[in-house]
Input
Amino acid sequence: MLIGWLAVIFMGTAGPPAGGQNDPFARAGEVFRFSFEKDEDRDFNYQPDDWSRRKGPRFPTYVRSEIDRHVARHGDWSLRFDVNGGRAVYYSPPKRTDALHAYVFDGWVRTEGLKNDAAMISLSFLNHKRHRVQRVLSRPVTGTHDWVRVRIGPVFPKDDAWFVVVGCHIVPGKGPRDLSGRVWFDNLRMGRLPQLTLVDNYESHFKLPGEQVRISAHVGGLDPGPKYTLRMKLSDRNGRLVRESTRELSPPSVTEGSRLKPLNEVWLLPPQPRGFYRVQAALRRNGEVIIERNTTLIVMDAIQHRREGEFGWSIRRGAGTMPLKDLAKVASLAGIHWLKYPMWQTVSAGRPNSPEEIVELGDILAHRRIILVGVLGEPPVDLREKFASEWTGVSEVFTLPPKFWWPSVEPVIARYSSLVRHWQAGDDHDRSFVGLSALPATVATLKREFDRIGRDTRILVPWKWNTPPPGREQLPHTLLSIAGPLPPKVNDLDVALHSGRIGAAPRWVVIRPTVGASESASRRGSNLVKQIVAAKAGRADAILADDVFHRDHGLLTSSGAPTPLFIPWRTTALALQDAEFAGSLKLTNGSRNYVFTRDGEGMIVLWRDEPGTEEIYLGPDGKVIATDIWGRQTPVPMNAARNRQVVSVGPEPVILRGCTEGILRLRLSLRFQVRQFQSRHGGQSQAILGRNMFGQGISGRVKLNLPRGWSITPGAWQLRAGVGEEFKLPATITVPSNASLGDVPVAIDFQVSADQPYSFRIHRTIRIGMEDVAMEVYDRKLKNGRLEIRQVITNNTKPTEILSFRTNLFVPGYRRQRRDVVKLGNGKDKKFYFLPDAEALRGKTLWIRAEQIDGNRVLNVRWKALENKVPEDKPKGTAGPRKKKSSG
Output
């Protein structure tokens, strides 16, 4: 049953033609070839010379095999098997190999009439006692196909491999054995290449600032005669060359029967700046590149203070070729507190990771304060085979009575109960529990059964974004693991989390970049950081990186080397772990930002679509540090004249550390008691509201700066407030009659003493105009060249007031135009103005002023003519080519 469903997957897939760029033999020297021609059957008995056929009860001799002198892929003859309900295998004579070379193999297989059986080729490497120490299989071929090319390799023999044997097999599938059919094998050949490997372990990938970089390459299998050179390059994340080295290699002298060791080439580099780097090594033979190898390394700061935060990793299909003890070490560098790992099949025979390795992983993680989460995602084969090939997910298993699934789960829980308290039913992308009516009962059953062996088990259930989460009362002791597809926009992530938070079960968010692997490292890293920040702002209970070893969006390669996403993840996780989201500031140039606080420190993550700057006071000079997503740190400069930090901002997020928490929280708390002023004559009451967010009492002076023409009584206040105390600074403000409708910027200056003196300015806006009366202005260029201006006044007063206005249009160089709005009840009134030359007015500031007759409302709208206009053929009566709206 070795092949089974694998045969169906690989059936009929042919390799590329011989020769060409993808042909491994284009650069390899041939070791041997079996083509079953006349010189390989010297005694003419239709059997290949020196080959041996396996015999025994499972390999009946009635399955006929012989050299076919009429069918061939290469030359005239081939080896044929006549299928007849049994296994069969022919083994070649052993051929000499060594551990210094890499070996490639290909052969051709033709099949006729196979249904369940399949043809395969094997390579068996033997030690000096002719015992097998290593075996590699080709893909299986079944059905009916004309000459399919199968390949194996490159294969790197173990150190004790001295010989290789080729095997031609007829193997069974899942169904009954085939009683008819034929298989041919031909042109079986092996080539060898020199070996080039880069030392690929935990220590080689992660460096500290100031630490020397050591790159080691092992080269073996250099043949005497050709000229070999090894070129190594170090490049940054953008592909820019940082350093390179080229050195000539000489094959070591060889004596008969000796076992040579590979050359060890070490490249020492000076310490490198923080960031992500690629290492490339190319082995050239007579000037032609024959082997290339790549790996990565990162330079990053050590973790100064390890916290038990909410960040984690999710591993979907195991750790690849990375040793689990190295995985534990790397995880501890990544600023995580949770690690999901698939465990259902680890107690089964033949799995990549043994239970002992999982226990060692759990012990190392626990020592480093990382909690292991067991994922029951892929059932064991014997359990999975009881279900249809098309199934929705593991809920099909767990909704059945426990007696059905407990025998396969109990060994897992029993083996790891001392390490694992959190168990997830289904992997992160299993959607079978969403909308399940029996979900509460199913989860309750899981917890009851798990608690028989475990200790106060917590159950995780995979969920999806666009489905409302169940409440805590429905799923006690349960967490929801929410994975992709994510909301379409990063900015929607925090909204999605906020919308379903109240009363919901705790939610773990599993995120990954939403931009493709072909995009730049900067864009992909920025996208990942923005999602982390949005999830943090949405107050997710845990934030995990999805499928850490994924080829396209993972943080690690299958061998454990870091990808370009590792540093952005780590930088953000370390900065924000265990921090509290405080809100967002209104910055002068509109950069998107998120404010976090922790242990008295304030942090801001901010970015903007176009590069620019923001000026804002965040604390004393020299304290605020900007960290980019690659871990590089720079002090934020201060504009001494304006007493503000100058922050460079662009599409790549920047993290500001060392901000004074009291200043950030005071900025966030400060507001006006009256958000909107009526557009009328006379004084109006206002007050500045805020809270002392410093860690001690404050005292000082506050001043409100208003636009010219406005008046305020008083204009300044003395401030004294205790820790956490709210304050109110009342005033009377008079708005001038020519003030335009809309938001008017104002500035509030603080000069206060807390742990030290602070002087800073906070910007806010006051809106002129209420929603009960609004004036909108539209303009457009007519076909005859004139400018049409449409004025719309809307009366929404409740209870209804009957309003009349005298309106005037002011245009530079023109006589004013007047219109009257007479006795307008609830509804709209439209008036039109016309000017002779639209193009002459383009970009000039126009002004319409509406004064209430027998009232004190004044509506002012200023706009620039014909800016941001829509196409001129827009139907009349719609929003119009140019719109200016405000309310009064």
